[in-house]
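# step 3/5: fold
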Amino acid sequence: MTDLVRNFAKGCRGLVPTMDAALVPWSEEEQHDNWERVASVLFMTLVSEPCEYAAVGEDGLSLISTVPYGWDVPPVDCNAYLAATAGHDVPMRVVRLSSSQQPFDQAIITSSSGTERISLSDASFKFVFAPANGDGRVVEHVDLTL
């Protein structure tokens, strides 16, 4: 999982020159809906879909709905999310990537106790699936070689 998230961050960083050339703001101070749409699709393709498949297999995909990238408040029908641990006992939901020393080197995480930023290099990531039937699971590794 951690490799998937770091690859997603690398993909976002790789788009910075293209976004700059197209005058599409990507930095936190300036980003708008244009960047969020791009980041959402990358997140879905590089993180959510592989995690959903690892969690439930092809036959269970209709049972899983992952919180979309960038949503501060998750939709009520979502039952899965990307989580991170970095100095926390309990994984906290990842909202979006943010920037500190370089573009997209941090994640914004949230829980009932608040929101904070963590370094991607210090974090480990998990995918949490909590269906209504109580048969939840946590995915810590996704094998992309299948």
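# step 4/5: annotate
The chain has one domain: 2-139.
# step 5/5: archive (pending)
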